[in-house]
Structures are given as C-alpha cells and as structure tokens.
Give the backbone structure.
Amino acid sequence: MKEKSNQKVKLSLDSKIGTFYASPIGHDTIFKVLMQLGLSEKLITNKLVSNMKLKTLARFTKKQLGEDFFQVLLRLVNSEEDVPFVSRGEITQKWWKEAVFYQIYPRSFHDTNGDGIGDLRGIIEKLDYLQELGVTALWLSPIYDSPNDDNGYDIRDYHKIMKEFGTMEDFDELLSEVHNRGMRLIMDLVVNHTSDEHEWFQSALKDKNSPYRDYYFFSKEPNNWTSFFSGSAWNHYEEEDIYALHLFSKKQMDLNWDNEKVRADVIKMVNWWLSKGVDGFRMDVINYISKEAGLPMGNEVIGNMMGFTGIENYYYGPNLHKYLRQVRAEAFDKYDAFSVGETPGLGMNMCQLITGEERKELDMVFSFDHLETPGHVRFDDYEYDLNYYREYIVDWMENYGNNCWMSLFYNNHDNPRMISKITTDKAYHTAIAKLLAVMQFTLKGTPFIFQGDEMGLINYEFSSVDEITDVEAKGYYKELLEKGKTKEEAFKTLLAGTREHCRVLLPWEEILETASDIVKSQAPDKEIHETYKRLIALRKEDKTLVYGDFMLLSNKKDRFVYKRSLDGREYIVDCNLGKKVRKAYSVEKGFELAYESGKFELKSKLNSYEARIWVKQV
Ligand code: ISL
Ligand code: CA
C-alpha cells in the first residue's frame, strides 16, 4: 500500500518533496511527469530527495524548469481540498459492474445501404450477433448531426441524428430492440465543445450581444495554449478580428461551463435523451470542462513535457467536481443512469476523487496510462511491453478501493490496435488476442470491448497517406513536414499512432459470415471469436470474476498470476506475458482447468503469450 497524506495544510515551497509526493494531486502530477519522461518513481522516493525542500529543488533546476514550474504545481495541488477515501469493505452491486460493454464506432461498424458508411440499421442488423457474443451493453460513439470535421465529435445539433447514419425513427427502433434483448445502450456525450456550426456558436459569432456569446471563450488576445490537433488552440475570425478557443479542431469550440446557462442547457439536453430511455452516457474529455479563471498562459516546460501547452489549466480544473455533481444530481440521478467519463491525463488519486461512490460525481472513468509504456507516446514506433501493463493494473487492483470501479479496455476509436503495438509478428497475434481477452474478463472492473477486438483485428495496412483522413493525423502530418521530416518519415510516424487503424469498416464478410466455409472457420479470427464467447460466458456464470477480491500471486518477468476469490470460490489466472516458453504456475490440488488459450501440450509449461484459468472445485 502506498503512503498517503491526510493533511489539508496548504503546501508551499517550504514543503518537503516527500510531503508533496504524498499528497494525492502532487503524487498524480509527479507520477505523470516521470512517466512521460520515462523515469523511475525511485528518483523521488529516495530519502535524500524526499527530505529536500521544494525550494531547494527549484533552485537546482531553475535553468531547466524555470521560475514558475513549482508555483504551477503548487497551485494545482492546493486547489484540491479533499483526499481520496479508499474503502476495503463490501462492493455495492450494480448492473454496470456486471455488464460486458461493446463500443460501436457507428461510421465503421456495419454499412447496410452500400454507401461505405456504417449506419444505425447496420447496428440493428448485428444485435443478434452481439447478443450471441454475450455483450450486455453498447456504447455508441456520437450519432448526432455533425459536419464531421472530427467524425461526429463535433456536434451541430444534439437533438438530431446524423443523416448518413439514419433517422430518429431508426434510433428509436434500435433502442427498443436493444432493450428487447435485455441489453442496455449508452450514448456519447460531447459537451466540452460543440461544432462551430452549432446554432449557439453561429449566433455568438454573428452578434456580440448574442445571449450565446458567453457560451464560448472569445478573446482579442489569445494565450499560448496549443490544440490537441496541432497549432494554436485559438481560431481567428477576421470579420471581428477576434479569436475563439478550441482545444481540439478549429471546428470544435470549447463551451464555457462557468456560465450557468451552458450548464442548464447541457443538463436539459441530457434529460431529453434519458427520458427517451437511454441508459447512460460516456462523457467525452469530461475532465477538461472547467478552465482556470482568466485562462492563464500555459507553462512552457510543462507544455513541452506533455506535448500540449496550457493543459495544467484545465485537465483537473477548479470547478470540475462541482460541475460533475450538478450534472449528476440534475440529470443522471433522476433516471438512475450510468456515467463513464473519458478522463485523459488523470492519475489514480484524481480518478478516486471523481469516481468514489460517496462523492456522487461519475460511476467510472477511462484513464489511459496503460496504453503506452513510460517514455513513449502514441506516435512512437516501439514494442509495448506487457510487463508494464501488469505493474499498472496491479497498482489499480490493489489501491483503487472497493468504492471505486475500473473500466478495463485495450482499444478504442482513438488508438492503434493493441495487438499490433505488442508485436508486428503475425505468428503471435492469435495468442496475444486471447491473452488480452483472458485478462480483460478476469480482472476486477467492467470490460469494454472495442468493435473488432473479438475478431482479433490488427492495424490496417494503409498504402498511402491519402487513405488517412482523420483530422488529428492530417494536422500532425503537416506539422511533421513543417519540422523538416520527409513525406516518407511523416507517413511512417502516422502509421505508428493514427486513430484511423481503429476506424476502418469492420470486415464482416471476410471474417464471420463465412463460418460455413471450413477453411475460414478454422482461421485464427474465428478462434478468437470463440474465445471471447467462452470467456464472457465464464464471467457471467460466476460473480467471483466480477466482485471477487484480487490477489497477486506472481509478478516475475513475463509472468502474471493472480487469484480472484469470493465466498470460498476461487480462480487462478496464469499468464505468460512474453514470447519465451516458461514454467507454468503450479496450482494447488483441487483446481481444475476452466479455460486454456493454447493447446495444453505440457501442463508444466506455458507457451508464448499463453494463458490459463483455473477454478477451485467446490
Ligand atoms: O489528443 C489527445 C492527446 O494525445 C487525447 O488524449 C485526447 O484528449 C483524447 O483522445 C480525447 O478524445 C475524445 O475527444 C476528442 C475526439 O476527437 C476523440 O475521438 C474523443 O474520444 C474530441 O472530441
Ligand atoms: Ca450506410
């Protein structure tokens, strides 16, 4: 267990580094910085350093870090009054803890009218398939009316369906078909920003005195914040010689949540969908909604470390908790609806302060620190080491608390496929796909399958940069060329990290609909699909895999062995995280094999990436 400080005393330059690191936000911030730089925690936790005063460190590092660096960290740390409560007690039972979620990126899920774009009818057509797989809840990426600058994450009208996807009648049918099957459906809530084509922004832009002017951030003097999609976070409007803030694309304008009318309108819209019967929302970049008052300049050192300037002013903003509570109280709670926030950049303490059930903010979050190993960013071309995933997940399993609940995922629409990140050697792909599934369905938390995971999909082989149309990738490509990279180099970088890999239409025909064809049915993809079915069924059979305690049995190199137990029921999961064949964990008498990802040639050995699940006989 990690040491935690309970003191509510404000920290200052006279505080010791150790005290700073023991404070929840201090810990998360330093942890993130170390991770970004690929440095070890030991750098901070050794006695010599931890007894040093912050101001001494500030003096030593003045040249590298500048005057303000520690002031900015102190402001962030001191802005949080609370400390996380970590319960070891009973877990409250909830449908969404027992659920198996499946994320649909509608544009590339299933196209029924041949225009090359997935649609709502396509989802309806595949509901039986999803039910058979064992999925119990769906998350739909945005399906609202949008000019599609960022594939629907730029919403023009929250109450209309994107015309390429279908109509509101199609949606209503989809929702009732989902419910008829005893499944749930959650929507994507994108309210950090709207499209610049949204009527609020149009009105604000055209008329200084518009009631919607304060819905956004307009300024004559833009600050130095940068956009996640390259360049400045401020777009210039010539007519009035004024700028407006957009953390994402130039067509995704940040909403001003400090304006209570914005909150009221968002809450009204959320109620509208909940009253239609949707079961909850995934909330896009929800930790970015509260910005530091006055939008102060971003610290350049932090900006360089993180790759984005300004981020310390909004990724854990001053009113975040307050706004989340308001949305919950005035919308979600009225329907007992489920919420999962997308929260890039937040560490474990911050997540505890947002998802602790006693705090009444969000039910769950997606945090992302497991998607790249320390010192790497998404666009790096490297081999992901699963030993890091083990370290990460064990920390969360042991320290997140029973009053908080984790989401378990490896993929989503914003990342290349995890299997390809681990190795490009196709010989291992089937084994890796199964290994990932074993961990996903036996660890403590709610699994979120991303469409195609169950088919064992890997990165797409793009042959030209023109095939990559994502707004982020296009901006980054331009930036790389401006920095002097050749076209080949820039294309190679995109291939490593582009979100496009996960946005290619699912290959239904090639993979599953040829099940009758003997050759195809023995293809690895089919095998992976069967594995998903088996594991989901196993998880549903026994609540031990949902609510059971987690206990680490071995974390030697390339090995991950853990136990889940509840009321005398026990499972042991034995995973080989690497390519080398290694000795299997020797389970006590009384356990029998519940699942085996390989061929079980040798009981005492585990092949490359092989995994076994043992269950205690009762
Ligand atoms: O851009 C990032 C830093 O590299 C990401 O962490 C980013 O904050 C995250 O991917 C946010 O994603 C969500 O909001 C975006 C949208 O483009 C993504 O598809 C969505 O998942 C803007 O709405
Ligand atoms: Ca279509």
